[in-house]
């Protein structure tokens, strides 16, 4: 099973890492991949520093036991952010658009979660 978490507020960023870890730890759910998609400039800025950065790094490091993790930011929101892709933790990827990425993943069978 593959799951995408849609994060559009700084508050959601503050606990998405815990949601990802909880999902990966749930032995009743066979998870092969988890992605977090961010579509807000404010969240991108929060992800570049301090606690937000640590949460992104936690998501990226949470994979293992056969489950991959990814953290993607909307390229449109990135243009409106103060931070650049280079300011974000290594491994963060830019998606052409957040809504496009969410649509593509859901079309490909990913479960959608909005924390």
UniProtKB/TrEMBL annotation:
InterPro entries: DsrEFH-like
Protein name in UniProt: DsrE/DsrF-like family protein
């Amino acid at each position: 099973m593959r799951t995408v978490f849609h994060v559009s507020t700084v508050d959601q960023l503050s606990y998405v890492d815990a949601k990802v870890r909880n999902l990966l730890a749930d032995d009743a759910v066979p998870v092969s991949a988890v992605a977090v998609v961010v579509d807000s400039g404010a969240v991108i800025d929060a992800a570049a520093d301090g606690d937000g950065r640590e949460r992104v790094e936690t998501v990226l490091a949470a994979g293992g036991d056969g489950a991959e993790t990814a953290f993607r930011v909307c390229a449109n929101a990135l243009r409106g952010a103060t931070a650049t892709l280079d300011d974000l933790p290594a491994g963060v990827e830019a998606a052409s658009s957040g809504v496009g990425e969410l649509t593509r993943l859901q079309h490909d069978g990913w479960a959608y979660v909005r924390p």
